[in-house]
Amino acid sequence: MGMNEQVAKILIVDDEPQIRKLLRVTLQAYSFGIHEAATGEDGVRQAIEVRPDLIVLDLGLPDLHGLEVLSRIRAWSRAPVIVLTARDREEDKIVALDGGADDYVTKPFGMGELVARIRVALRHASDSANEPTLTFGALSIDLVHRVVELDGERVKLTPTEYELLRVLATSAGKVVTQRQLLQQVWGDAFSESDSHYLRVYIGHLRKKLEADSTRPQFILTEPGVGYRFRSRD
Fold it and tell me: Do residues 25 and 113 share a domain?
C-alpha cells in the first residue's frame, strides 16, 4: 500500500457484539479502518459523521429495520452497502438490493466471502468513473461503440441483448435483481410478470457468450434474486 493511498473506512452496523468483533478483527487485518454502530439510529448518525467508503449493514437491528437505515443513508450517500441477512429471508435480499444495497451476504457467512464482496464493491465504486471498455478474460465490451468481442471475434447481439449485457457488466460482481434488470432494460413498460422474458434473453446471451451455457462463466444466476456478472479479478 503506497504512502498516499487512503485506508478505506468501513462502518459496521450490527447489534451483535460478537459479530462486530469478528468483523473488526478480520477487517483490520486487511488494513481497513473500522467504525461500529450497534443501532440503526447510531448507524445513520455515524454514516453522516464518518463518511465511510463502505457500510456493512445487518438488516435485523433492534430499533430501526435495516431497510429504513438503508433508505436514510441512500437519501444522500452513494457509498456501497453490503447487507447481512438471515439465510431464509429471500424477500429481504430483493427489497434491500432494490432499495440501493450493493450486495448481500447471508448469515452464517465466511469471512473470505465477505472480504471478497467488500473488495469488489470498493473497486466498483472507484472505477465507475466510466471506463470505455470493460474486459473480463476473453470477453471485451466497448461501451462507446457498443461492440462486444469474445476471443477477438465480434459477437452479434440484438439491441436488447446488448443492453442487458451492458447493465450486468457495468455492475460486475454485484447482484442485480430481476426487477432492476427489467426496469433498466425495458423501462417502465415492464411488469413483474415479464420476468420470463428475462430468462429467455439471459438464455440467448449465454448461448452467444458462454462456452457451456449450463455452466456459465460470465452470467451467474443468484437463485430467486437475480443475476451477478463475474467480477473482474
Answer: yes
Assign residue 45 the CATH number of its domain. 3.40.50.2300
- pTM of this structure: 0.79
Full domain range(s) for residue 49: 9-127
Amino acid at 98: D
Rg of the chain (C-alpha set): 19
Which candidate, 18, 177, 187, places its Cα nearest to that of 108? 18
Where b means 16+ CB within 10 Å and e means fewer, 185-197 reads bbeeebeeeeeee
Question: E strand or H helix at 216, and its extent?
Answer: none
Running DSSP on this structure, what letter comes out for residue 162?
Answer: H
137 located within any domain:
yes
pLDDT digits (tens, 9 = 90+) for 34-93: 999 999 999 999 999 999 999 999 998 989 888 999 999 998 888 999 999 876 777 888
